Amino acid sequence: MAFLLWAGAAAAAERIGRVEHVEVWATGTPEGGTSRPKHIGNGVEARETVATVENGALHLIFLDRTELRLGSAATVVLDSYVYDRARGGEAVLRVARGITRFISGRLGTGQLRVRTPSVEIGVRGTDFSVWVEADGRTTIWVNEGAISVQPLAGGAAADVAQGETVAVAAGATAVQRAAPRPLTDRGLLPAIELNQERARP
Fold first, then answer.
1. Is the overall model pTM greater than 0.85, yes or no?
2. Which of the listed CATH numbers 3.20.20.140, 3.40.50.410, 2.60.120.200, 2.60.120.1440 matches domain 2-182?
3. Is the pLDDT of residue 40 over 50?
């Protein structure tokens, strides 16, 4: 019985990715566990909640090479993640607040979904950013590729192409086109650029 309990705990804590970069301070909280600081090279696991502080950043890279970059004061729940190189997989990531950037890896169309308090985003192999405000309003802009945005309150899904910015308010059933884009958050930049900034005299 003790062995079975240990094996179950090990499976629950299976590593699904790792930390690539940290700015200022970031934390991870396993499901049912306590918050702990995140450092470069640390693993992340399914159902873990990761978060940054004001002006902080946390960059994760998953087993399929999908990248997740958290900017200032952001919180993301890694709801589920299953990946096999031969068969693909499925992942659901939930942005609770703040600005984040997703660069999809080997997961195929529809296998990666991103949820916020107001929308579900279907990913088709792309690079896009998400801003969730305190009231749940979500703004999404596509840097490359295309996504599908479905309001959680109902209504029609909207296809969003490269260069477009859309928004959905909490409880809204319509996707707002040509929405204003928030100010750039440096935490969404590649880690190499952040390291170069830090090295400048």
1. yes
2. 2.60.120.1440
3. yes
